[in-house]
Amino acid sequence: MSKITTELLLERAVPRSTRLRKIETLNLSKLQLKTGDLDPRLFSRLRHLQKLDLSDNLLDKFPNSLTLPDLRVLNCNNNKLEDVTALKQFPLLEELTYENNVYLTLNDDYKVMFLLQNLRLLNGKDITKLANHVRRVNSRKLTSKVTAHWEKFFRDQLPEKHTAEQVKSIKKKFLKSVQTNVVYGPSSLSEFTRWRVKMIAEELLACSLGLDLNTDPEPEEKMDDSEEESTESPREAAEDVDQVGDFSSYINNVTVTPSKRKRNNSKPGSGNKRSKAQANNEEEAEDVSAEPLHFLQCHSKGNSREDFKTQLWSCVFEPLLDCGARKDAIVSSSRTVATCGGESVCLIDCETGTVLKKYKVATEEFFSVAWTTLTMVISDSRKKSHNILAAAGRRGIVKLIHVAADFCYGEIKAHKKPIATLCFSPTRETHLFTASYDKRIALWDIGIPDCDYNFKASQLLTLEVLSIPLRIALVPTCPDRYLLAGCEDGCFAWSIKLDKEQKSRPFEAIFQFPDKDGGVTTSHRVDGLAFLNDDVIVSKCSKPGCIYLWSWSRSFDTKGKGCQRTISAVILAELEWSSTDLSYLTLSTCPAKDYVFCGDEKGSVWMYNLSNYTTAWGSAKGKRSDRRIPPTQILKWPELRENGEQLSEVLVNNVVSDPTFTYLVVLTSVNITAIWKKS
């Protein structure tokens, strides 16, 4: 039996009423209501209802036919809503609040702004200006893009005399193609953009071309207006340290001189000052692989524009969701990156340079971030995938952040000393490795939070380290069996199989490398470590000016017995790099493109395209390259001036590309995040 009756509605009316049709204000909060309790037949009698409070209930969606023709104000705070499109049935709605519905995102904000033409206030904020953009300003751009896509690729595919099957086929192909190729605005709004693009595409087919689209069993909504992709958000920055803000700073009065050159045929400083537009229109004599897009100062202490001292340490691109209602499968690669340094963690859209979210802890200095995707149980025992970001640093505490909900839901007190780096298992989404200055690497099961964010974390394993671990990597071919770590005093490997009873384990192997005197050594600082593919490891620095590439399978005999073995790394090649003796300038790889990246002490990024070498290295008889491999290109640090003074002594602490090498994110020692885009 439904919880809502005529008597309840009359009693909860404000003021109490004797007739349903006379009720103008109704408070149905805190009744544990579910979607099935909202009976359309009963609600259809509330013809003059103007204000409805449904806060603090268990609603996951709205029925499509509540029939409240005069509703002006709706409060849905503290529910479990997953979709907002059913709100279009309230065309006169002027004020809407749905805060603390953790499954709603910025995409839903934009959807309601488009669907509700009279909406003025969203979650207590005046969205009139932004809503006008969403509804009108950008419709010409998206409509133009959709129309051009039809004209160029599909119009000629449809014969003059076409059958219903041909119409159905062309519609299916066009809708899929247009949503794939018409991309606009930040990736944080990609779901909304595709939603609007599909809508516009269906209108184009149905109205402009006169095609009958009633070939799908599911009716599709058609709208006339379009949206504006804006970096503004109706949600303001939260003050609480466990929530997200949108504070960001661009470097003021910047002069950018991108000097990009091939290592062997260009001289330093040969780049000419020019605008980005000129770079796009002029043909360069040199081979330019990337252009600088943005220089952001978004990790400043106290949001100070004068902060050029905060060190930035780690960045990692957000993974695409594999399943769920918010699947982003059309996008080939994420362009949202998480960065950390100082007291904050930021999420940045690489294309627009927008700081989408910011998380701060005043007493922390963050050193590392890592992503995982958890399948979480939501209402009615249904499951959804959500990206979770782990962040850790000087305090030895791991913060767990549900990014879509802008909520830090928990923390793990993992170590008593700083955590240098984090790493999630690629095969077990709840397994997190933490490497600490306490000379331990711990494996944690972070658990999966329930709908109230209750979770239980447990420690599964401790790996004993002889010196501070700086970088860790799981072996791609057996990520549940072996872990490598680059440490202050060597490179080590451990068995991490959980079927063993031993919960605290010493290292299984230590690798020795050539030293600068021509001998071999196991005692050297390894501050860069990553896999280029399933077998090739890239590490630095056993000696200045050199990065080694070596084979895991040829170096480590998995059939060998005994612990703490000394093993000679089978070197495949050496990469030519800076001769600096500065430490902690780490490297990264882009396995899909066979690239290695490493920054230096002058703000430059050394890039190595190794696609011509990997096949030979993979053969059983592959020989070591006789000479050091020079960088394919070096991206020189641009000339940046703040208040007329040039920034100097820029160290590149880290540089990371997205999986398809579209964007390159450079983290520096001067509180600047530089974003480059491959030409």
Automatic annotation (TrEMBL):
Region called Disordered, residue ranges: 211-242, 255-289
Q: Which GO terms describe its cellular component?
A: centrosome; chromosome, telomeric region; kinetochore; nuclear origin of replication recognition complex
NAD as a keyword of this entry, yes or no, is: no
Q: Give the matching SUPFAM superfamilies.
A: L domain-like (SSF52058), WD40 repeat-like (SSF50978)
Q: Ranges for the Leucine-rich repeat and WD repeat-containing protein 1 WD domain?
A: 289-678
Composition-biased stretches, type Acidic residues, lie in 215-231
Q: Which GO terms describe its biological process?
A: chromatin organization; DNA replication; establishment of protein localization to chromatin
Gene Ontology MF, one: chromatin binding
Leucine-rich repeat and WD repeat-containing protein 1 LRR domain span: 7-200
Keywords associated with the record: Centromere, Chromatin regulator, Chromosome, Cytoplasm, Cytoskeleton, DNA replication, Kinetochore, Leucine-rich repeat, Nucleus, Repeat, Telomere, WD repeat
One Pfam family from the UniProt entry?
A: WD_LRWD1
**Where's it mainly located?**
nucleus
| Compartments reported by the entry | Chromosome, Centromere, Kinetochore; Chromosome, Telomere; Cytoplasm, Cytoskeleton, Microtubule organizing center, Centrosome; Nucleus
Q: In which ranges do the WD repeats occur?
A: 412-446
Q: Which PANTHER family match?
A: LEUCINE-RICH REPEAT AND WD REPEAT-CONTAINING PROTEIN 1, OPTICIN
Name the family. Answer: Belongs to the LRWD1 family.
Protein's recorded name: Leucine-rich repeat and WD repeat-containing protein 1
Which organism's genome codes for this protein?
A: Pedionomus torquatus (Plains-wanderer)
Record lineage: Eukaryota, Metazoa, Chordata, Craniata, Vertebrata
Give the encoding gene's name. Lrwd1
